[in-house]
Structure formats: C-alpha cells, structure tokens
Amino acid sequence: MTRRFATHQKFTGGLAAATASLALLVSGCSALTTSGAEGEQTEQTVEEGFHVGLLLPELQTARYEAFDRPFFEEALGELCPNCELSYANADQDVDEQQTQAQAMLTDGVDVLVLGAVDSQAAAGTVNEARSQGVPVVAYDRLAEGGADMYVSFDNHRVGQVQAEALLEALEQDGTTGEGSIVMINGSPTDPNAADFKAGAHEIFDGQVEIGQEFDTPDWSPDEANSQMEGAITSLGVDEIVGVYSANDGMASGIISALRSAGVSTEDLPPVTGQDAELHGIQRIIAGEQYMTVYKAIRPEAEIAAAMAVSLATGEDLDAGEYTLTDVEDANGESVPAILLEPISVTEENIGDTVISDGIYSIEDICTADYEDTDFCQEAL
C-alpha cells in the first residue's frame, strides 16, 4: 500500500494559498525554548526552507488521508513555501511507524509532526528525535516521551458531548430509565480513547444503566460488530435503548449488528459517533445513526503546521484566538498545547457545520442512495 510509506513534496511560491483565515501565525524573532531536545538544534529559516516530517497513524478512519494530510500540506506551503515535506501513514502498525520515523530522522528532517499509533510506544521515537535535536509536535494524540508541542481537541469534552447527545436522544424517545445502553469505546492503545471514555462516563454514571461495555482494538468496525452481537446476545435486543460508539467507523459495524438482529431503521436505538465521516453523515440523514462529533480538522492541521514552523525556526508562536495551555503526558512531562472544541452534529445542524465549513457539499451527501431522504429532498 503506497500510502503507508514516505512521500516527499517540495513547496514553491506558486502553491495555491491556504485559506485566508489561517488562525495560527508564526511571528516575532525571540527564541522559543523547546521542552527538551537533547541534541544541538540548528534554527532554520522560512526563507531558506527546511525539512518537515509528517507521520499519521492509520487508515481505518477516513479523516487522516481525506483531510488531515491535505490541510497540513496546504498550511505548511502557505507558511513556508520553500519547505520540504515527507509524509507517511503507518496503517495502525506500531513497528511500521517506528521504521518510518527512523527513516525520516536518517533523511535529516528538522521537525517531526507525529500522530502516534500507540502513544506509549511513540516515546522511543520522541526520545530518538530529541537526541538528534529534532523537535516533535504531537498531533491529535499525545505521544509520550516529552513532545515539544501538542495540538488536538479537548478529548474529555468529546466524550461528554457524545454522552450528552445520547441522553438527549433517550429523552426524546421517552426511553430514559428504561433498558440499558451499550458502550463501545475506542482502541486501548490510543490515549484519546481513554479520554473519550472518561468524559462519557462522567455524564452517564448515575444517569443510565450501562449493560455492556467494550474497548475496541484498532478502532475496528468488524470488532465493534462482533462486540455488539455479543451485547445483543447477552442483554436481548429489545433491552438496548442506546449505543455509545466512540467513532463513526465503529458505528457502522454496530448498526450492521442491530440490523442482523432484525431491528428496522425506524426501531434502531440512537447510536453516537465521531469524526463526521461522510458515511456517518449519510447514516444520520437516513435515520440510522443519531449523531457524530465534528472536529474542525482544518484549524488543527493549520496549528500543527504553525507549531512545526515555530519550533524549527525558534520564532514565537502567536496563539491568536486560541489558548496555549499545558498538558501532562502519561509520564508527567508538561507539554505546551492547544486544545480545540468539538461540536455535536445531528441532522438539524449538518448545514451549519460540515457543509458550511466546506467539508462536504450537498451533492457529496445526497448521492443516489440518499436523495429520497427528507434532508436531501429539502436541500436539493
């Protein structure tokens, strides 16, 4: 799979400009002290350009190839037209990501942007980069080992948003206090999944009965399907009033299991999701999935690009409208971070979120299989 391995891109001044609303700018001339590069770091300049490595974790979730990578490339090209970008996706393989990272370090990257497959295993990559004086931006997932900067969403809040939406759906259905819900959480190797889970429990505990709960290796829709089948066998399909699914991909497997158990579209319990994948949005308008969490990936990618330029050049990072805070990784290392706010998306606000932000068009959503839905009939 060629997408797994490093590709190289040299930006030029002729690259189409990134969106004019780029929210994070690198400014000033005073040096920014990185959090722990042990080797001697040579500051680069935007005028001469430098080498950036982008490592993304997996292909199960559509967002990384469809949005994160192109948005990052676009933002870096705007901020540093003469920079070179190397890219690789590990396809959920820890060893592969370590190999990719080592190849980039050997190739002489000046800064790494790392979306870790496994945050604990990524500590080796972070430490190796530090030993060579290469700063690391932890992207979307907080890698251990003392990354220099971190950008993600408020992942605890993501879980709260999902749980709040599910409780609201139960209230609308009149099933609050009846039956139980099933929780199908994300991958146990992804630190974000633990935050989603904790945030959801903060809302659920004491408010609803959790009949079955699972953690899902590799965010696998197939595994989520099997877990849901087990929950149906254990609880009985009629006793399940809602399903907490940590993301859209797993929601597809969950809904498939419910359908296999004989549940019609009209009788499906509300199912949550995350990532605002196109198929997730289409399931929402079809009445199969209740909600998803929209995380505005463009600003996340733009911030990561600005952090990379800041760390490579030693220039200050101007947080603009965002708040620069400190978070601790699992080893107690303090990392400067920007955490963005997630948004709950149901059928009612699709137009005000993923469509208005240009993520999808009406035509993208309202394909032949969905053109008869109420949403598409009103939109087309």
From TrEMBL:
Pfam families attached to this UniProt entry: Peripla_BP_4
Localization per Swiss-Prot or TrEMBL: Cell envelope
Record bears the keyword Signal: yes
Keyword annotations of the record: Signal
A GO term, aspect molecular function: carbohydrate binding
Coarse class of the protein's main subcellular location: other
GO cellular component: outer membrane-bounded periplasmic space
Identification of the protein by name: D-xylose transport system substrate-binding protein
Organism per entry: Nocardiopsis aegyptia
Taxonomic classification: Bacteria, Bacillati, Actinomycetota, Actinomycetes, Streptosporangiales
